[in-house]
Specification:
The structure is a single chain. This protein is mainly alpha-helical. It has a domain of 60 residues. 59% of the residues lie in helices and 4% in strands. The chain has a two-stranded antiparallel ribbon with strand order 1-2. The longest helix has 18 residues. The mean pLDDT is 80.
C-alpha cells in the first residue's frame, strides 16, 4: 500500500511539473511596411515606365555602361534628377507610372 502511494505521488508530481507550460506572448510591430514590399512596389513602377518609354530604356543603359562601382548598376539617388528627354527627369517619368502614389514614401523610407 505504501509503495502504491509513493508511485502515485511521484507520477502526480511528474505530471504537474512537466504539464505546466509558460505562455509566451510576443507582439510584433507592423507599423512600417516590409522592405521587400517597398522594393517590389518600386520595381513595379520602374517596370511599367521602362516598358512604355524607349528613351528611358536608353537612359538606363547609358547610365549602366558608366560602371560607377565597377559594375553595371544604376544607383537611383544619383540619377533621379538627371534629364532623360523632353526636359523630364528620371523621377518625373517614374511619377507618371506611380498609380498608387508610393514613390515619395519609398524614397523617404528606403536608403537605396
Amino acid at each position: 500500500m505504501k509503495r502504491n502511494t509513493i508511485i502515485i505521488l511521484s507520477l502526480t508530481s511528474l505530471f504537474v511539473f512537466f504539464g505546466c507550460t509558460k505562455e509566451i506572448n510576443i507582439e510584433t510591430e507592423t507599423t512600417l511596411p516590409d522592405e521587400n514590399t517597398a522594393l517590389s512596389d518600386f520595381a513595379e513602377i520602374l517596370s511599367s515606365a521602362v516598358y512604355s518609354e524607349l528613351p528611358l530604356r536608353d537612359f538606363i543603359k547609358s547610365e549602366a555602361l558608366k560602371e560607377f562601382d565597377r559594375d553595371f548598376d544604376v544607383f537611383y539617388p544619383f540619377v533621379k534628377d538627371e534629364i532623360v528627354y523632353d526636359n523630364q527627369t528620371f523621377r518625373q517619368i517614374l511619377e507618371k507610372y506611380d498609380t498608387k502614389g508610393l514613390l515619395q514614401e519609398i524614397e523617404a523610407r528606403e536608403p537605396f
